[in-house]
């Protein structure tokens, strides 16, 4: 996956998140489940979301060639969520994360996009293993990670955080 490369799956265009996706990021990061399970990113406007993309997502895209991806429905061009590979502080290695807007949850988009990104990470980026972290209460994410082939490896507390998270791993 070279810098700015888009991917496709059966139903999705999976492309790097850019400033033009600020509305999607604003909606998703202010959804109740995102705040409950991932955290409040304190995005109070679409402008805050645009700055978040500029400060948190694009630097990794430019330095690593991958980062956060916006998920776009091929049929109607609706932006439905995000999925990506992250070089997260406090976590040794690369991890995968995903978030789907509430109205699109339960339709298999997180599995579809995660599967495609994992394939690209292993086959194109030659990343030997991918980690994943999730809140202990987030049973749907735990189930999805197991369905994707991840194995539970233990727990972790990230820097400047207090919650103990479940740590998963999948190898190439």
Account of the 3D structure:
This protein is an alpha+beta fold and 172 residues long. The protein has a single domain, classed as Gcn5-related N-acetyltransferase (GNAT) (Aminopeptidase, 3-Layer(aba) Sandwich), CATH 3.40.630.30. It is 34% helix and 27% strand. It has five helices and eight strands. The protein has helices spanning 22-29, 32-37, 46-64, 109-123, 139-148; strands at 7-8, 12-16, 68-73, 79-86, 95-100, 129-135, 151-156, 165-171. Helix 1 crosses helix 3 (46-64). The model has no long low-confidence stretch (mean pLDDT 94).
- Mean pLDDT, rounded to whole units? 94
CATH class categorisation: Alpha Beta
- Structural class of the helix and strand makeup? alpha+beta
Number of strands: 8
Question: Could you describe the largest sheet, including whether it forms a barrel?
Answer: 5 strands, antiparallel
- Give the termini distance in whole angstroms: 16 Å
CATH topology value: Aminopeptidase
Instruction: List the uncertain runs.
Output: none
Shape: globular
Count of helical regions: 5
Radius of gyration: 15 Å
Count of separate structural domains: 1
Strand content: 25-35%
- Give the name of the CATH architecture: 3-Layer(aba) Sandwich
Largest sheet strand order: 1-2-3-4-5
Return the string of H and E elements: EEHHHEEEHEHEE
Query: Looking at this structure, what is the CATH superfamily?
Result: Gcn5-related N-acetyltransferase (GNAT)
Tell me the helix content: 25-40%
Describe the SSE topology:
Layout: E1 7-8, E2 12-16, H1 22-29, H2 32-37, H3 46-64, E3 68-73, E4 79-86, E5 95-100, H4 109-123, E6 129-135, H5 139-148, E7 151-156, E8 165-171
Antiparallel strand pairs: 1-2, 2-3, 3-4, 4-5, 6-8, 7-8
